[in-house]
Amino acid sequence: MPRIGWYGDDFTGATDTLATLAGSGLRTVLFLGVPDRRVLELAGPLDAAGIAGASRTMSPPRMAEELEPVGQFFEELGVSVLHYKCCSTFDSAPDVGSIGAAVATLRGHVANSFVPIVGGQPNIGRYCVFSNLFARAGSAGAVHRIDRHPTMSVHPVTPMREADLRLHLEAQGLAPVVGLHAPAYRTDQPEASLQALLGAQPGAVLMDLAEAQDLAAIGRLIWNEAKREPLLAVGPSSVAQALAAHWEALGTSPGLASSRELGPASGPVLLLAGSLSPVTRRQVEAARSYEHVALDAGRLAVEDAYATKVVDDLSRHLRDGRHVLAYTASEGPPSDTGRAGAIAAATARLVTEVLRITPLRRIGIAGGDTSSLAVKALPIWGLSTLTVLSPGVTVCRAHSENDLDGMELMLKGGQMGSDDLFERLLSGAPSA
C-alpha cells in the first residue's frame, strides 16, 4: 500500500515530487490520469503514486470535476497522506487554480480534519517565514518577498499581490488559516505548539519552512497525525521532502536511490519554450547548439495554416539531424486567462504533432501550463524519474504501449534552472 499519493497541479511540479520520492528510494510512478487496474498492474508494486494534472489553470467548478475522481482513487488506494502539490510560489486565485477549491474537494476523501500546508522549499529558493513567502528570482538571483517578486508579482494569470500566505489562502475560502512558525521547530515539543493550534479547529495550518534542517520536524508532525487518520497535505515538493526526511530519521526509508547519469543525446532533440519568464529567456539566449525558431504566440493560437507551417518547419530541421529550440515570442504577457490558455494549448499541440511526424528519443518543454497540456495529449500512461538535471528540473522516462516508451522528457517551470540548462539537456551534464 503506498504511503503517499500526490496530485500535481501542473506537470513540472508533479515531476519534482516524483524525483524527490524516487531519490529517497521509494518505488514510485507518476500517472497521467487516474489509472485503471490494468495500468496499476503495469506499474507494479509502489511505495508512492502520483497523478499529474493541470488544475492550476482551471476554474473552481472545473477543479471539482477534475479532483473528485482523484480523491476517490487515493481513498480507495488507502494512502496515509494525500498531497495536493501546488506551485512553490503558491500563485493561484479565487477564480483560477484556487487552492481553497482543491482542499474543499479533496478533504472529503480523508478522515483527518488536520490540513497542513507547507510554505517554502529551500532547495529551490522558496522561504516561508512567519507565514510570509519569499522567492529567489532564477537559480542564483536575489530573494524577493513574493508580492514584490519581478516575475510572480506580475504573473499573467495569477499575479501574487499578497505575501502573507494565510491571507492569500483565506481569500480562496480556506478560513481560518493559522501559522505554525519556525521557532516552534526549535523547541523540545513542537507537537504541543501544533496541538494548541488545532484546538481552535482551523481551516488549515500553514507551516513555515526556511531551512532544510526543519524538514524532519515538519515531516514528523505530519506523519504522526497521518498514522492516526489519513490526511490531506498541501504545498510544493517540500511536503514529500519533509516526510522523506522523517522516514530517514526513523530508519523506515529504503535509503537514497543511486543517481543515474543522463548521457549525451543520441539524436536530434526538440525543446519547446512556452514560458515568457526572464529565466527561460536567458536559457533560450544561452542555447547555442539549437536551431532557433521563434513562434508568434498569437497567430499560433488562431491560425491553423500558420500552426501547420511551424510543425512542418520543425519536423524538417529534426529530420535533418538538427536540435531545435522553438520559443514563443511576445511583446508582453497575455491580457486575459482565456488567451493565455489558448496559447498554452496551441504550443502544446505543436509537440504532439511533431512527435507524430518525427519520433524522438529526447524532448524538453519549458512552461508549466504548456507542459501540462502537452504531456496530457501524448499517448503515454506514466512517467518515472531518470535524473534531476537541476534543482526543480527532472528528466523522466515515458511509459507507453507504443513507440514513445522510453522517451526521455525534461519538464521545467519558467523559474527553474540555470542559464545553461538547455545546453545540458543535450550533453546530459548535471548542474555544477
From TrEMBL:
<dbReference type="InterPro" id="IPR037051">
    <property type="entry name" value="4-carb_acid_sugar_kinase_N_sf"/>
</dbReference>
<comment type="similarity">
    <text>Belongs to the four-carbon acid sugar kinase family.</text>
</comment>
<protein>
    <submittedName>
        <fullName>Uncharacterized conserved protein YgbK, DUF1537 family</fullName>
    </submittedName>
</protein>
<feature type="domain" description="Four-carbon acid sugar kinase N-terminal">
    <location>
        <begin position="4"/>
        <end position="243"/>
    </location>
</feature>
<keyword id="KW-0119">Carbohydrate metabolism</keyword>
<feature type="domain" description="Four-carbon acid sugar kinase nucleotide binding">
    <location>
        <begin position="270"/>
        <end position="422"/>
    </location>
</feature>
<keyword id="KW-0808">Transferase</keyword>
<keyword id="KW-0418">Kinase</keyword>
<dbReference type="InterPro" id="IPR042213">
    <property type="entry name" value="NBD_C_sf"/>
</dbReference>
<dbReference type="InterPro" id="IPR010737">
    <property type="entry name" value="4-carb_acid_sugar_kinase_N"/>
</dbReference>
<dbReference type="Pfam" id="PF07005">
    <property type="entry name" value="SBD_N"/>
</dbReference>
<dbReference type="InterPro" id="IPR031475">
    <property type="entry name" value="NBD_C"/>
</dbReference>
<dbReference type="Pfam" id="PF17042">
    <property type="entry name" value="NBD_C"/>
</dbReference>
<dbReference type="GO" id="GO:0016301">
    <property type="term" value="F:kinase activity"/>
</dbReference>
<keyword id="KW-0067">ATP-binding</keyword>
<keyword id="KW-0547">Nucleotide-binding</keyword>
<dbReference type="GO" id="GO:0005524">
    <property type="term" value="F:ATP binding"/>
</dbReference>
